[in-house]
């Protein structure tokens, strides 16, 4: 009994040590990367002067002042809601139009050129036109942001649809596999990777565009706050206004999206094994 206990204790210690090593292999490079980023930030600040690019210490001090003022949380919430609305609308357009372009020949022949033209139109023209049409309101901000992002998503979905293997679907139908099963077991595993990558690209583009849209025509949000402090030549508050939003987006990318990716595509590891 005592020997069995020692064996299990030894196995548990080995498993714990293995998990710790795996964790350190991921954590240490990230810490080194963060340290190098801070060094680079300081170097740029002292090269171009801290009036242009404040140091991390100065930015954190301004960030604490912004937290005490209380506006930073409301700005963050407003911008995230606008970003979510624009992202969902852009994904809806991207998936719908991109799928049609990939599967329907006559639709592709007629409207394929439209997507190319839409992608070449400057973002500023979309934003200004929608603001003039709908007014300076949240609906205009969301729609203009979605229209700027949508062409890139359409192209991604379109290219992804070209990678589908029609022989797999034909084979499944030949063996009498139900349509629902074909969609779940044949089409979905093929489409999910590029749908996920398209959503990731769309989210990244959308939050950048929404900041630009707010800067041009809204009186609230992170973009508006950046423009407000820039007009006062207060670069510490400019960086501080963006700091929390960037941190939230990093959390979404590094924690939410990466874990979701592992969950959705765990079948790849199972197939590899």
Overview of the structural elements:
It is a single chain. This protein has two domains: 1-48; 56-272, MetI-like fold (Orthogonal Bundle). It contains eleven helices and no strands. It has helices spanning 2-48, 56-69, 71-103, 105-120, 123-134, 138-162, 166-174, 179-217, 222-231, 235-264, 266-272. The radius of gyration is 24 Å and the shape is flat. The model has no long low-confidence stretch (mean pLDDT 82).
CATH topology of the largest domain: MetI-like fold
The coarse silhouette is flat
The major beta sheet can be summarized as:
none
Please indicate the count of domains.
2
Characterize the quaternary organization of these chains: single chain
Task: Report the radius of gyration as a whole number of Å.
Answer: 24 Å
Q: Are there runs of 5+ residues with pLDDT below 50, and where?
A: none
Number of helices: 11
End-to-end CA span: 35 Å
Fraction of helical residues: over 70%
Q: Structural class of the secondary elements?
A: mainly alpha
Reading the helices and strands in chain order gives HHHHHHHHHHH
Percent of sequence in beta strands: under 5%
Total strand segments: 0
Summarize model confidence as the mean pLDDT.
Answer: 82
Keywords:
single chain; 273 residues; mainly alpha; MetI-like fold; 11 helices; 89% helix; 0% strand; flat
Give a topology summary.
Blueprint: H1 2-48, H2 56-69, H3 71-103, H4 105-120, H5 123-134, H6 138-162, H7 166-174, H8 179-217, H9 222-231, H10 235-264, H11 266-272
Helix pairs in contact: 2-10, 3-4, 3-6, 3-8, 4-6, 5-6, 5-8, 6-8, 7-8, 8-9, 8-10, 9-10
């Amino acid at each position: 009994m005592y020997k069995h206990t020692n064996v299990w204790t030894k196995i548990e210690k080995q498993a714990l040590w293995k998990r710790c090593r795996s964790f350190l292999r991921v954590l240490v490079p990230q810490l080194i990367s963060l340290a190098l980023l801070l060094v680079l930030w300081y170097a740029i600040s002292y090269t171009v002067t801290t009036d242009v690019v404040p140091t991390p210490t100065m930015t954190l001090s301004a960030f604490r002042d912004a937290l005490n003022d209380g506006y930073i949380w409301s700005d963050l919430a407003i911008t995230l809601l606008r970003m979510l609305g624009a992202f969902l609308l852009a994904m809806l357009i991207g998936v719908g139009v991109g799928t049609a372009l990939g599967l329907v020949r006559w639709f592709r022949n007629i409207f394929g050129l439209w997507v190319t033209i839409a992608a070449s139109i400057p973002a500023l023209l979309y934003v200004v036109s929608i603001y003039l049409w709908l007014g300076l309101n949240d609906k205009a901000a969301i729609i203009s942001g979605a229209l700027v992002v949508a062409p890139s998503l359409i192209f991604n979905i379109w290219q992804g649809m070209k990678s589908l293997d029609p022989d797999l679907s034909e084979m499944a139908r030949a063996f009498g596999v139900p349509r629902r099963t074909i969609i779940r077991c044949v089409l979905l595993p093929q489409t999910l990777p590029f749908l996920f990558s398209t959503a990731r690209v769309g989210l990244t583009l959308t939050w950048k565009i929404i900041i630009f849209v707010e800067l041009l025509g809204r009186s609230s949000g992170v973009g508006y706050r950046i423009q407000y402090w820039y007009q006062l030549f207060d670069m510490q508050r400019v960086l501080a206004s963006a700091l929390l939003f960037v941190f939230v987006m990093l959390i979404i990318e590094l924690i939410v999206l990466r874990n979701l990716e592992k969950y959705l595509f765990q079948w790849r590891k199972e197939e590899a094994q």
